[in-house]
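User: Can you predict the 3D structure for this chain?
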Amino acid sequence: MNMFKHAILAVTSLFALLLSAPSFADSITNNVVGAGGYDLTTYFSQEKPQRGNGHHLTELNGVTYLFATDENKKVFEANPEKFLPQYGGYCSFGVSVNKKFVADPEQFDIVNGKLYLNLDAKIRSLWLQNMSDRITDADKNWKTIANKKSSEL
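Assistant: Here is the predicted structure, written as structure tokens:
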């Protein structure tokens, strides 16, 4: 009989543990690194962007941004909107045609103080052919696709 009580207790404990498991899953966050780990401030201060590292990071809206130095991190934190890439960091050309493509952080342009990333060198060359119209189209499209999943487009 004593063994039966232990079995019931074990099953009850296991059941209670399984019921509480979803609450653990809800508290897990994903590791989302913005701009492919590049230091966003360096796009504006150097000829070529520099990779950040795990020693200098900050989180904004669920995205972790890495910086090459603590000073760069502080500059970003003081005014993140100045440094964030347009269209959530998606390929600017893609957004101009109602798509969301993951951008290559080394394929970039700064236009009127704003950072625009593109998918690859070929797509960037298309972007450069008619950049002002592409920006107008992308600004308009972003209003409707910003909260949609890439797979829905």
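The two ends are 62 Å apart (CA to CA). DSSP finds seven helices and four strands in the chain.
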